[in-house]
Amino acid sequence: MAIPSEVPKVDLRDYTHGDAARRARFVDALGQAISSLGFVRVSGHEVVPELIEPAYQAARAFFSLPEEVKERYWLPRGGGERGYTPFGFEHARDQAQPDLKEFWHVGRELPSGHPLAAVYPRNLWPAEVPEFKRRLLSVYEALDRVGHALLQALAMYLGEPVDRFTALTTEGNTILRPIHYPPVRGEHYIPGAVRAAAHEDINFITLLMTSTSAGLELLTREGQWMPANALPGEILADTGDMMSRVTNGVLPATTHRVINPPDGNSDRLSMPFFVHPRPDAVLTVLERFRGAGFPPPAPDITGYDFLRQRLREIGLLDEETEEVDYRGAGHRGG
Fold this sequence. Notes:
Helix 2 crosses helix 5 (132-157) and helix 3 (49-63) packs across helix 5. The chain starts with 8 loop residues before the first strand and ends in a 21-residue tail after the last helix. The protein has a single domain (45-321), classed as B-lactam Antibiotic, Isopenicillin N Synthase, Chain (Jelly Rolls, Sandwich), CATH 2.60.120.330. Mean pLDDT is 89; it is low at 321-333. The chain is α+β, with helices and mostly antiparallel strands. The strands form 4 sheets. A 6-stranded mixed β-sheet has the order 1-2-11-8-14-5. A 4-stranded antiparallel β-sheet has the order 3-4-6-13, covered by helices on one side. The chain has 8 helices and 16 strands. It has helices at 13-16, 20-36, 49-63, 67-70, 132-157, 166-169, 241-246, 303-313; strands at 9-11, 39-43, 83-85, 102-105, 175-176, 179-181, 196-199, 205-209, 216-219, 225-227, 235-239, 256-258, 268-270, 272-275, 282-283, 301-302. A hairpin with a 5-residue loop joins strand 9 and strand 10 (225-227). 26% of the residues lie in helices and 16% in strands.
């Protein structure tokens, strides 16, 4: 089978504004791209440059602050569920070397009195960058709507009710993660380490706005690495371990990585959006993916317990943080 030269592209307007025929073509193209390559480029969405560029400006302003200032927003006892996580703290599963990055977590904002408001940790906001909150939440809300539509379309592709996945992820503990990859030199050079070692995402689906520079690569089903680049205005989408679990591997999580720049002198900003279920949502293998021709189904597990398991494996949760009522960090991505 020939290796594709680029990630397939779909136009979300075919789903949100098209007639029945256009919607059907979109659903099929999306499902084929995800099942065969694991990634898809999405255009025709509302995450416009007028939202993206200010968000990146705010993220850069924060990551440019002195280390001692940034670390005021680090809650190591919380395992990184909100706020700042310093450079070299996270590593890929089964990897000893840390990733060469620092990042920030923005979670869902809920109104006072909402049943989940007391469950999800509150967001932190850097006082030194007053526009950070408004700009990041604007991107969060727009990406949340895109993720909802893509999950509906994937359910339709599988022959499931349109709300099969969104019933689990609506008001879920979804995370927007601005990531800074500094130049790979000096204190930010670790022999054998890369910006993000090969991994699969933990969640249902990940949305990645166009990054400030290239470096993301995906591993094809044929075992070859290929660049996974999105043009300005496009979103890269891929499915994670939770989707793979409930579909029994029919929509598998795709391995990807972020490689170091050739000269080591440039930095990189990216902003993946990890769509997660509510903590009490049960991840159970769908009935159509059980029985003859399928592997034995994985046992049921809540989104909360599955996440904790993975957090231990990537270094964001350890014995000292086990007592924390932890409900949402642990994401990886480009």
